[in-house]
Each structure stands twice: as C-alpha cells, then as structure tokens.
Design goal:
This protein is an alpha/beta fold. It has a single domain, classed as Rossmann fold, CATH 3.40.50. It contains 4 helices and 11 strands, in the order βββββββββαβααβα. A 6-stranded mixed β-sheet has the order 1-2-9-6-10-11, covered by helices on one side. It starts with 30 loop residues before the first strand and ends in a 19-residue tail after the last helix. The structure holds zinc ion. The site of zinc ion has 5 residues, from loops. Zinc ion binds next to loops.
C-alpha cells in the first residue's frame, strides 16, 4: 500500500458497501450522462456523471425547476462520487456538486473542462472541495495524495485564484479494513496538517512541560 502502488488492482476493486450512484431520486433531476450526443473529452460514452449545474446555471435546487446562475459569485464546488448526494442545498443557496461514478482525478478533470468549455465560469476565490472516496479506497492514500497534489496544481494553473482542498465524505459502516485504512490515513493526514499551527511558540507553552517547582 506504500508509494505509488494501488491498494488493490482495478480488476479486484469492489466497494459493495458504497451507495448506489443513482439511488437518490434527485439524481434524475440533475444533469447527467450517459445520454446520447454528449461526449466528455475521451471518456467512454457509458461514463456515469451527474452535476447539479449545467451551462453556468444550477437547474436543480428549486422545486419548480427555476434556475439560478452560479457564474456571478464565488462558489464552493464539491467534486465527488457515489458517496455524495447529487445536489447539496436548496432554493438558490446550494453548493454546485459534480459526481463521477467511482471517479478518478483524470475523469474529474475532463468533466470540469467539459463544463468550462461550455458556459461555466468559476469566479476568483471559489473553492473546489475534492472527495473521491471510492477512488481513495481503490488506489490507497499515497497514490491518492500524489494525484490530489497534481490535480490541485493543474486546477490552480487553469484558475490561479481558486482554492483546492481535500475532504472526506460521510460513509456508512461495514467497509473492508483495507478501504478503511486508506480513509483513516487521509483523515489523519488532514488532521496532521493543522497540528502545530496553534498559538504556541515554544515548548514551555505546554502546561505539562512547565516545571512543577
Ligand atoms: Zn442551486
């Protein structure tokens, strides 16, 4: 599981505790593929994708299908997979969500480029939150982290004033230990990044390190 080796081979990978990509009825009310005549980069036509927005507008968060632009303001975009619901928020107060079934970083790049070549504009100061849980479980933490860094550099080259950050989506119980280890590793790596950044400037600031007398 170390280095750039995948945790399991793609052929062996199963994640039978993952939610069904289409089980949430809202997945039918968001933009999705496969659909005839839509080609996303060099992804196979069978690639399963949903996005709560299309053409720079969100069409999915009002009950009466009213749409609102997501191009004019900073947004928190969430890029994920079947572990995320197809939309988050309602009535114009939403986070645009883009999902690829068991999606990899490369697939997400291609879907994002597809939307950017259309009418989507991502404003400066927007945030891309990345939660590719299934991919993390498939490739293991080390490869995931390396791919995340490369994805973040690519995105910042394209849009220098955005923030790209990793996160972990909620997941259900019952996953294989190998999968949970990858999630735990990412979780602790995220925790570790923020340790040591508190208002402590020397060892003696810690209570237990102070001389008792
Ligand atoms: Zn919306």
């Amino acid at each position: 599981m170390m280095g750039n080796t995948e945790a399991v081979t793609r052929e062996e990978f199963t994640c039978d505790k993952a939610p069904n990509f289409w089980s949430d009825p809202r997945s039918k009310s968001v933009w999705h593929t496969p659909r005839p005549s839509v080609v996303i980069g060099d992804l196979p036509p069978s690639t399963e994708v949903t996005s709560s927005f299309h053409g720079g507008s969100c069409h999915s968060c009002f009950p009466d299908k009213q749409s609102h632009s997501i191009n004019n303001n900073k947004q928190i975009f969430i890029l994920g997979d079947e572990f995320l619901p197809p939309k988050i928020g309602a009535r114009g107060r939403c986070c645009p969500v883009m999902r690829v079934h068991q999606g990899s970083f490369d697939q997400h790049k291609q879907v994002l480029l597809f939307h950017l070549r259309g009418k989507l504009r991502i404003r400066d100061g927007s945030i891309l939150v990345i939660m590719l849980t299934s991919h993390l479980m498939k490739v293991g933490f080390h490869k995931y982290q390396s791919e995340f860094k490369s994805f973040a550099s690519w995105a910042r080259c394209l849009m220098p004033s955005i923030i790209v950050m990793p996160s972990i989506a909620p997941f259900n119980t019952g996953h294989d230990l190998a999968h949970l280890i990858s999630v735990s590793h990412l979780f602790h790596s995220l925790q570790g990044e923020f340790l040591g950044k508190g208002p402590v400037d020397n060892d003696m600031s810690y209570v237990l390190w102070r001389p008792l007398y």
